[in-house]
Amino acid sequence: MKKALISIVEPRETGYRVAQVISEEGEFPVASQMFWLQCSDSVTADQFWYDPVDQQIKPLPQQETL
Questions:
Q1: Considering the entire predicted model, what is its pTM?
Q2: Cβ distance 51 to 18 under 8 Å?
Q3: CA distances from 41 to 14, 46, 64 (A)
Q4: Which of 10, 24, 47, 52 could cross-link with 17 by S-S, CB 3.0 to 4.6 Å?
Q5: What is the pLDDT of residues 19-51, one digit of tens each?
Q6: What span, in angstroms and rounded, lies between the C-alpha atoms of 50 and 59?
Q7: Residue 56: beta bridge partners?
Q8: Which long-range contacts (CB under 8 A, 24 or more apart) does 22-31 make?
């Protein structure tokens, strides 16, 4: 498992940005506007967001190209 750093001052979708993803043992202290959350190994920073309603990390919708 990994840990995702959630930034509650950076909105994404209807939740918050996944700012960084690290191995569990790499966790470090963060400011009160951020928190760590366990996540799957497939989660990557800026490609996922945290939904506070169901407390899940979800992939950002794919951008359509013209």
A1: 0.89
A2: no
A3: 23, 14, 25
A4: 10
A5: 999 999 999 999 999 999 999 999 999 999 999
A6: 9
A7: 51
A8: 27/3, 30/5
Closest among 49, 52, 51, 53 to 61, alpha carbons compared:
49
Please give the single-letter amino acid code of residue 16: Y
At residue 64, the pLDDT reads 60
pLDDT at res. 62: 82
Alpha carbon distance 47, 58 (integer Å): 9
Indicate the length of the chain as a whole number: 66
Q: Where are the alpha helices (DSSP H) in 1-66?
A: none
Burial of 19 (0-12, 13-18, 19+ CB in 10 A): middle
Residue 32 CA to residue 64 CA, distance in Å, equals: 35
SS3 28: coil
